[in-house]
Amino acid sequence: MLKAALRDSLVYGLASLLSKGLVIFLLPLYTRVLSPGDYGAYDLLITLGALANLVVALEITQGLARYWADAPEPAARKRLASTSLWFSVLMYGLFLLIGLLAAPQLNALVLGDARYLDAFRLGVGFIAVNGIYYLLLNQFRWELRSKAYALASVAYALFTLLFALVFCLWLGLGLVGVMLAQLMAALLAGLLCLWLLRRTFGWLFDAGQLRAMLRFSAPLVPAGLAVFISLYINRFALNHFGSLEDVGHFGIGSRIAGLAALLILGIQAALTPLVYQHYREPQTPGQIARLFSWFMSVALAGCLFLALFARELLMLFATPEFMAGAALVGVLAPSLLLSQMYIFAPGIAIAKKTHWQLWVTLLSAMASVAGNWLLVPLWGIWGAALATLLASSLFFLCWLSLSQRLYRIPYAWRALLLSSLGFVVCAGVGVQLEAMGLALPLTLLLKGLLMCVLLGVVVVCGLLPLADLRAVVQQLRRLGGSARV
């Protein structure tokens, strides 16, 4: 399983790096055609899309993932996949109809400004089409077709870049152009996925299989809502207690911090289906622990890099109006990773204890709501960032504790703790360097030394032993193009 996880993680990770990297290169364009307030409106529309993806189709893709490995016959799998697709098309179609009919009222509620109504309508269309695209994209994961996943992901990013240049730079449509570019990219990428999956889907629908998938996935919806609240209530709190400009500054900081998520996207896409297939094998817990240690070594270094060089990155990717978001990156990058690292603690999913997931995420959501309600009025965007870190940390620690009861993983606790402490110290020193106002070359040199210090701590503490590092390098060199498109 470890070799397959590394192989597919590499492919998924490279695809995510290319696709998300291309989107990052849109930031210079977006921050020049959008004011901080417009960018805040864009961020809220994307946030609304994340909410819709959780609730509209009742997380049916999770039900499909759970039952896919248990349906070895091609005909049964085709019926299962087709049922999930047509159910999703129906639900997103209803969402689109209701969203367009109620657009004036919903726009006033979410964005609070009638000048964004056209962009809101396009946003509703994008959310519906994008929901279908994500279901199709995830199908490649269940079929272990990492190359096809990569092709579709990169195509989506290229379409987004192309249409953004046309609608925003050439035609000067502002926020309307941004949302139109997103809609067209999702539509074309979805059609590409359908063509690549033409043998997977058919004009089939099985009500019994739908009920089985929904019995697994529907209880995940409240948990998904709780996760959404934990991660995204900060935008609505900032809009309520502050302004769309605050949302824009927070959003740009989140985009830079979101580069940390590239570290987990590849593993996340590869690991879940592999764990479902191999969790009964005695060597699997040790392999998951080893993979987690490798991941944390890279994640700590990646988060420190973003924290230390956030200002320099924003100087490249944004205008001076957005520079207030740089200071938040050191808090938001670990927050985003903590909210996704549950994949390394699979006990709850394996045991199908979805009600446990609900209670953990509800606790995290309550912490996020309380934190934002208390801290945003006091400290604005800083309060929102700290509340997000609190909620993400609580979520991961509770999830980890419960998962260990159901499926024990032998994590390297001492190495994890010492390496995390090293990250905190190095990040704190980096904050002091920024405050000292040293010359830029000297500042960059000292930041580079801090990166080396953390890497040394990771190796000395045993989180990434030199033997493991050599093993990873050798394994990556041996990986060929064995994944089929």
UniProtKB/TrEMBL annotation:
InterPro entries in the cross-refs: Poly_Biosynth_Transport, Polysacc_synth
Location of this chain's protein in the cell: Cell membrane
Pfam families associated with the record: Polysacc_synt
Record GO cellular component, one term: plasma membrane
Main location: membrane
Top-level lineage group: Bacteria
Keywords, sorted A to Z: Cell membrane, Membrane, Transmembrane, Transmembrane helix
Spans traversing the lipid bilayer: 12-30, 42-65, 85-107, 119-137, 149-173, 179-197, 218-236, 256-276, 288-310, 322-344, 356-375, 381-400, 412-433, 445-467
Membrane association type: Multi-pass membrane protein
Name this polypeptide is given: Uncharacterized protein
Organism: Pseudomonas sediminis
